[in-house]
Amino acid sequence: MTNRISRRDLARAACAALVLTATGRPGRDARAAGSEPGSQPKADSWHLDLPPEMIVKSWVQEDLADGEVASWQSGGVKPVAAVQAEPSLRPTKLPNNGGVLFEKGTKQALAWAVDNDAPYLHRWWVVIARCNSAVNAVANNISVLCVNGAEGGSLHRQPRVCFKPRAGTFVSQLHDGKLKSEEGQCSTDFGDWNVMVGYRRGFVMQAVVNGVKTAGQTIYALASNRMKSQSFMGDVNDPMRADVAIDCVIIGQSELDDSQIDMLMGWGMWRVGRQSALPDDHQYRQSPPSAVDANSKPARYAFDPAFWASWAAIGNERYAHRGEAASPISGYTTVFLDDFDSNTVVDDSKGAQGSIWYAPTHLAGIGVDADAQRISASPSSYVHDPASHTLALRLLNNGRWRTGAFSSVNNNGQGRCWGKGIFEIRARLPKIAAPRPGFFPAFWAYGKEHLFWRTRNRLETDFWEYDGLDGAYINISQHVHKPRLGYADPQVAAHDVHRKIAGYQIDPSNGFPETIDIYDGEFHTWYARIEDDYSYFVIDGYEVARVPTTPELTAKKYIMVDFAYDENKGQAQPDPSQTYDMVIDYIKVRQTEADLARIPPGFSALPAFSGKASPGQALTVAPNVIASQIEYLWYRDGIPIVGETGTSYELSSRDVGHKLRCHVRAVSVLDQPEAWTPESKTVR
Question: Where do the record's region annotations for Disordered lie (predicted)?
Answer without folding.
Answer: 27-47
